User: What shape does this take?
Amino acid sequence: MGGLPADLEPPLPIHYTWGAFRESGAFPLVEHNLRLALIRTVSMSGRSKRKSTEPASAKSVPQAVVSRLSYYLRELQHLLRQGVQTISSSQLGQRLGFTDAQVRKDLAYFGQFGYPGIGYRCQELAEAIRRILGTDQQWAVALVGVGHLGQALLGYKGFTQQGFVFHAAFDVNPRVIGKQIEGIPIYSLDRLPEVIRSHKIRLGIIAVPASAAQGVADRLVEAGIQGILNFAPVTITVPPQVSLVGVDLAMELEQLSFSVLHRQQDAGK
Assistant: This one.
């Protein structure tokens, strides 16, 4: 199994690409959006299982706000690695291409985090955002499809750093079944329900050809998966109680090329 990625949202702001470069040094667009998509899956599927202490309910918070929380968290983590202890809404917004009013409005959905004359304490705000997103805990993840894309996902260490841990991978290819990739066991797809339930896995990633994607999604749902990240180049459907996020890297590059093209055109005027 293996396939090209599809359906990524929301687009990565051009202003943020440099921050992502600082973090990864390679493939920043891919890395950021993989993490963002998983965090969005958690934010939708995890809150119903946790008693929230935030003022806003999950239903009342726009998805765009949840997405921007991910940007804030990434930048706060970068600032902490640099030894920065406090930051203002203006400084945080400027680093990401947002206004200070947008930053304050987004955070106000969940409570009061700033201090007069100080701004935000980076460590405190980062911990609060992780609680809001549900990434202050570990999440068991299963991957279906261990082709080139699937193997790359299994090898990405950033997931573990954000609390997402692969417990199992599945495929139909007898040449890979029974082996391990990056220490992750590869099971036959026929064993999916058994393994998902025994490991209490709640998140699933689909990295299979388009023709197999809907069938895999159905099996994940039947096994009890609550959130799905879909890389297959096709639209799939899941029940309302299951969260679904798609990843379309080609679409992201289209957004990037549009921005570069029109900046060049504007500069030439």
About this structure: The chain is about 45% helix and 15% strand. Confidence is low (pLDDT under 50) at residues 2-30, 46-54. The chain has two domains: 14-133, 139-251.
